[in-house]
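Protein details
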Amino acid sequence: MLSSTDFTSASWELAVCVDHPNEEQQKDVTLRVSGDLHVGGVMLKLVEQINISQDWSDFALWWEQKHCWLLKTHWTLDKYGVQADAKLLFTPQHKMLRLRLPNLKMVRLRVSFSAVVFKAVSDICKTLNIRRSEELSLLKPPGDYFKKKKKKDKNNKEPIIEDVLNLESSPTASGSSVSPGLYSKTMTPIYDPINGTPASSTMTWFSDSPLTEQNCSILAFSQPPQSPEALADMYQPRSLVDKAKLNAGWLDSSRSLMEQGIQEDEQLLLRFKYYSFFDLNPKYDAVRINQLYEQARWAILLEEIDCTEEEMLIFAALQYHISKLSLSAETQDFTSESEVDEIEAALSNLEVTLEGGKADSLLEDITDIPKLADNLKLFRPKKLLLKAFKQYWFVFKDTSIAYFKNKELEQGEPVEKLNLRGCEVVPDVNVAGRKFGIKLLIPVADGMNEMYLRCDHENQYAQWMAACMLASKGKTMADSSYQPEVLNILSFLRMKNRNSASQVASSLKNMDMNPECFVSPRCAKKHKSKQLAARILEAHQNVAQMPLVEAKLRFIQAWQSLPEFGLTYYLVRFKGSKKDDILGVSYNRLIKIDAATGIPVTTWRFTNIKQWNVNWETRQVVIEFDQNVFTAFTCLSADCKIVHEYIGGYIFLSTRSKDQNETLDEDLFHKLTGGQD
């Protein structure tokens, strides 16, 4: 039996700082505890000593020196290693956070600072009615990101009044599970699939959601265009190295906000991190589609992704069209059921997923793999040679392309046969100049094998381009996504077609736009305002009849077709190299890029990865591919954990299917992305 003096000597004093929300200053409380007391018992003692009647259920203990939460309340202080010198903070797990959304709207809501970021983002997205939260994450921007906008206020050019959408009463504030928000696949459609307006009749069914119909419209509708002055102030030309530095701010999905030094009421960016958009559905995804459109729009306007002038004008025309429809959307009457069915059928081919949309078609004999055969022009770049194309007879079958001197020699040996699995496919098109080219970068042992194909007309280009794109993913033309891809390419080409000058002239008289709002500042400087307006209106004739949601999906689709789409850059040093390179991470591949020239050097497909790991001591990422190919690199512009998570995250997203009923294997995500540190 222990005497009272023995018991007293085994106990010790523990100092706990109480972060009381109703008091400005934190209050220090000293408890007498023993090492075998569990964390729950410490919290109970603490609440009894504070002696304030309130709901303490959201409070937990935070260990400042170790930078961790003590959330396992059944663990003893000895098991955690807590001793008398520990500094503990008794604080709410849910705190206010300011998030700037892709449409630049600031939202203030209560977020869990104790849950891992993956779970916190899931709760945030449920509050904001954004499905597929695994595609988004939180980005801590560079220190000067928010300061740039404040300079404007001092100059009094055009003061920006920060309009914050306050969702303080969000269901993420409670410890209970979050409500499904405004989307639920068991309900009838909750958004009009034509204009994206929320169905007010269903709004009352979710009274616990902080998103009122008005707030929902703010997130689901496009914001008015920024003035050219505001756009110019935000614009900042960036090299690949600059872009790589911006990507250093992604938060670790396997750790909590508190563990990563995020403060209460701090500003973070909520962005689509993974460019793999699964199951976009206009009936449920008005907010998601709009935020995705806004992220794409700003990427184009601020030249975070490169595009040709012709493509810039198409993006401008779609923006102009969307901004006009967004202004009038509130006055549109709700559509009848038959109209909903018609637009749903029309949009079925526009469903943007990893593998493309599905279209109704007759079942084909899958044993008979289709082939393409036609005359195309070929150019193989060599030093000191002009770009001269030569005609050959090309045959495309399975995932390989072969070419012969003429059609009669097709049964013999080809001049060359190339497997396009894992290659880079880049459009080289100028519709006005009747140029329909395909640039292929085919991985070989010592780098990339480059070749250019030239087609005669749109239809030929669409068929061969779609075949090349599928082959690069290891798929043949027998795949169900081939025909929809051909139609999508043709549709995009038709948007580039020039219209008659008379239509544009009449539109110019009634012009109600500032053309510099819809193009990047660099593009705006090249043209006079009227000339730019005329060219935008000319492109607008091709999209003028599109409904609002379809126009946004077209914009997203056009963004996806750009050569640099989905590439996230990091500055790395490959093992054995004496110079720095850029590593591009995409949804299906890694690309080694020359930092000086921006030219791709080597491509590795995720499908060829056997395993990858991180040496946490040397901070080196090692990847093993098929055929005993290894590569290793250290990250210079960011922590190697960020790149490690990107690779694992994309591989995780590739496992999704519609049969999963939107439930995610969170353990698998952390297994693929968490590392071992």
